[in-house]
Design goal:
This protein is of the alpha+beta class. The chain contains 15 helices and 22 strands. The strands form 5 sheets. Strands 7, 11, 12, 15, 16, 19, 20, 21 and 22 form a 9-stranded mixed β-sheet that branches. Strand 5 and strand 6 form a beta hairpin. Helix 13 runs antiparallel to helix 14.
Length: 485
């Protein structure tokens, strides 16, 4: 029998002791009167009055022996020390606690508040009740779960035993709260759009495919937060919309990429990409200040300050500056040769994918903050062309720590131009490009009725991960895991 099995066996014996005494070890109701956070926030008032309070929570550890025991109690709002003294509490109740209670158990504890000689605010317990008898022990406080796979597979324990993780996920909640409040304060309306689509629009990515049994059709999980749907709402007369929601991309995993994550996208009628850049710069600085109380960050080898001037970097000019390649005139073979010279692994042989790979090499050398602008039409099938430069588009991407952390553009609303670009994407699909954008002919029909000029923009969890200086997988509550063998 393993050590863990022995612990479980001993705890089951304690469970049976409770049952033999007629005690339900898993009651449905608790008589809790306060949360721990409530108690701590009004501690002086409650303790001076001497009134009894009843708290409930998980015992994180049990210290002491003999006639006095100390048990930090955590209820999800905060932690307080529960103190059991044999000369204060009923002897049988004290003895039962010592006999059957372990760290990890949930209990209800009634008593009065006091401050120890060491200045620790505590609960002097006079009564207790078992709420949940745990059968497996919590990880060691100092070593925790060391193996990464075990940490993610038992994320509930990882979070429970690491206050820094709890704090990070509170910051993540605030990250999205600040985003939502920022946009609503500027007149954007929050909407919900479909997550199941017949064609995936709004991004270039390999989608997940599933089956809609009732309609007997194949459908895709969305790869953007309703881009083509929010543009339909522009045509419907909604001037400013946004959505925060999950998206799904059937691609590889990296420190900056996952298959399922949260994104935000907004669409702003009668605005262009210049307006969008000004708004996004303000948004990112607001997030930094309100969530972190600062604007300067470090991500690996990069240091950047969002309060500094955001440079404008032209996509084609930057590639030529770093590599000597003019993407406007270079052939596929010339780009392939350059990628091989740079030691860059690439997939696909069409110019769109090769150009994108070359750019990804170049962006790694830019700390930011900056806006990458004027991307080629070839890699921007939904963006308006730059006036006087039809092969470049009014597209912008915030760039920090060598990584794009958003994507926006002046939205293409010329239906004939949009159809031509979709036709090109269809050609790429037929040549085997699994990331090319699927044409949406009903979207083109909407454009023929007329959609106002607009700016659209989106960003997601990658920005949060960079501000935290962590791989994006670490910033998700429950990242997807392979099934156990």
């Amino acid at each position: 029998m393993s050590g863990l099995d022995e612990v479980r066996s001993e705890r089951i014996k304690k469970l049976e002791i409770l049952k033999a005494k007629g005690i339900n070890p898993y009651p449905a109701k608790t008589a809790r009167t306060h949360t721990v956070a409530d108690v701590l926030s009004t501690f002086d008032t409650l303790s001076s009055g001497g009134a009894a309070v009843t708290l409930a929570g998980r015992i994180m550890v049990i210290r002491g022996q003999g006639a006095i025991l100390f048990a930090p109690l955590f209820d999800g709002t905060a932690k307080i020390q529960a103190v059991l003294k044999e000369d204060i509490i009923d002897g049988e109740i004290f003895a039962l606690f010592k006999e059957v209670v372990d760290s990890g158990d949930f209990i209800e504890a009634t008593g009065t508040l006091f401050t120890t000689e060491r200045g620790e605010r505590s609960l002097l317990v006079t009564e207790w009740k078992m709420l949940v008898k745990s059968l497996l022990p919590l990880p060691d406080k100092y070593h925790g779960l060391q193996n990464e796979e075990e940490r993610f597979r038992k994320r509930y324990l990882d979070i429970l035993t690491k206050e820094e993780l709890q704090a990070m996920f509170k910051r993540k909640e605030k990250f999205w709260d600040v985003t939502r409040s920022f946009l609503k304060a500027r007149g954007f309306r929050e909407v919900e759009t479909p997550t199941l689509e017949l064609t995936t629009g709004g991004a270039e990515a390999r989608p997940f495919l599933t089956k809609h049994n009732d309609f007997d059709v194949d459908v895709y999980l969305r790869i953007s937060v309703g881009e083509l749907w929010q543009k339909r709402l522009l045509a419907a007369g909604f001037e400013k919309t946004f959505e925060i929601g999950r998206v799904y991309r059937n691609e590889g995993t990296s420190p900056n990429h996952l298959q399922e994550f949260t994104n935000m996208e907004f669409y702003w009628g009668y605005a262009n990409y210049e307006d969008g850049m000004a708004l996004v710069e303000d948004l990112y600085r607001t997030i930094a200040r309100e969530v972190y109380g600062k604007t300067e960050f470090t991500r690996g080898e990069y240091t950047f300050d969002l309060a500094h001037e955001w440079k404008r970097i032209r996509y084609a000019e930057e590639i030529e500056r770093q590599t000597g390649i003019s993407i406007e005139s270079a052939t596929e073979k010339e780009i392939q040769a350059k990628l091989q010279e740079l030691g860059v692994t690439y997939e696909g042989d069409n110019k769109e994918r090769l150009t994108d790979t070359l750019w990804k090499y170049c962006r790694k050398h830019i700390a930011g903050p900056a806006f990458v602008i004027d991307h080629p039409k070839l890699v921007s099938p939904l963006a308006k062309s730059v006036d006087g430069h039809p092969e470049s588009t009014q597209r912008f991407q915030p760039l920090i720590a060598g990584t794009e952390v958003g994507n926006g553009y002046s939205e293409l609303n010329d239906p004939l131009d949009q159809q031509a670009r979709f036709d090109l994407q269809q050609t790429l699909i037929e040549r085997g490009d699994e990331e090319a954008m699927m044409p949406d002919h009903e979207f083109v029909e909407m454009l023929e009725y007329g959609m106002p000029p607009a700016c659209g923009f989106g960003f997601g969890e990658r920005l949060f991960a960079i501000l935290e200086d962590k791989p994006i997988r670490e910033t998700q509550l429950f990242p997807l895991m392979r099934p156990k063998a």
